[in-house]
Amino acid sequence: MKTPLALALAGLSLATPVLAQDQVVNVYNWSDYIAEDTLDRFTEETGITVNYDVFDSNELVEAKLLAGNSGYDVVVPSGFFLERQIAAGLFQPLDKSALPNLENMDPEVMESTASHDPGNEYGVDYMWGTTGLGYNVAELTERLGEDAALDTWDLLFDPATVEKLADCGVTMLDAPAEAYAAALNYLGLDPNSETEEDLAAAEELLASVRPYIRYYHSSQYIDDLANGEICLAMGYSGDVFIAEAAAEEAGQGIEIAYTIPEEGALKWFDMFAIPADAPHPEAAHEFINFMLRADIAAANTNYVYYASGNEAALELIDEEVKSDPAIYPTPEVSENLFTLNAHTPQYDEMLTSSWTRVKLGQ
Ligand code: N2P
Q: What's the chain's Rg over C-alpha atoms?
């Protein structure tokens, strides 16, 4: 008769490849950005344990990477941050021979991300989306009238309009690069401008609506929109859809909508990359390759409502997701989208000080 220990060991060796038993991968991803069972499935299939941390700010990721020894094996910055992080030597080149699922990638997405990462040497897109406005339909209609346009940045950037919404709660992302890009675009200026004059104009606009902003935060607005605590948020497309779905599920009659305002919005790409000092680069490749599998990519997109960079996943993506123009924008809407280049460190310093002044209301 077998002892309990022998039985347990036999069971273990069946379930987990022996070599992988002590392997781990340390992943740092955006919050609310993965299906519920993805990590368990990865561990079941590979035996690699995932230590999973989340963030809601590119600026924060960059600070950790610059400090060094982050301990992370996989991080997911947006392309316009990845670009200068590559230049700063923060990543190791991807070993493409360990990423056979790269063949699933959408060539158009690869071409776009190559503008941040020539030759796609260091990063591969996970998902992409836009930064627009999420709102509570009833609260806005009540305050602005049945006929008011709700697909405009006026909601946030026109002081006379946003003033009317202040009592039901208006919030902004705590993401200076994106806030200034949206402000510059609204003013008809180049969102990629780095002139002091344009920065001052954007600061003036952001400061003019400061009195009506309840808070600056890059993930709290999901729950708050869903619960009716706030009525307007500058937010990430999929996050607003998550709020919309949560509100619907709660059944309290709260209807949330997302708009890519007609003046245009930022389109960004979030990129898997491996820090130069990653402790487990092999496991990192295995993790990224798993995430690039068509079924896994589709499951993640179906869960968080962001467009996938994965072309092979498309046929597995829910019809309501892939036919939603706010997730997969039509060619007309795409014409209004802009992308960002990496800011120089010099400009970034000015941007950060300016943002601090805006937030403090000084
Ligand atoms: C996920 C937010 C990711 C979008 N919650 C920001 N690039």
A: 22
For the Cβ of 239 lying below 6 angstroms from any atom of ligand 1, the answer is: yes
pLDDT in tens, 262-275: 999 999 999 999 99
Distances (CA, A) of 79 to 25, 39, 83, 85, 329: 22, 24, 6, 10, 19
Residues 5-14: b if buried by 16+ CB within 10 A, e if exposed: eeeeeeeeee
For the stretch 100-142, pLDDT in tens is 999 999 999 999 999 999 999 999 999 999 999 999 999 999 9
- Judging by DSSP bridges, how do beta strands 74-75 and 24-30 pair with one another? parallel
Mutate to test the pocket of ligand 1, among 306, 327, 340 (most ligand atoms within 8 A of CB): 306
Report the nearest-CA residue for atom 4 of ligand 1: 236
Ligand 1 centre to CA of 32 (Å) is 8
Atom of ligand 1 nearest to the CA of 32: 5
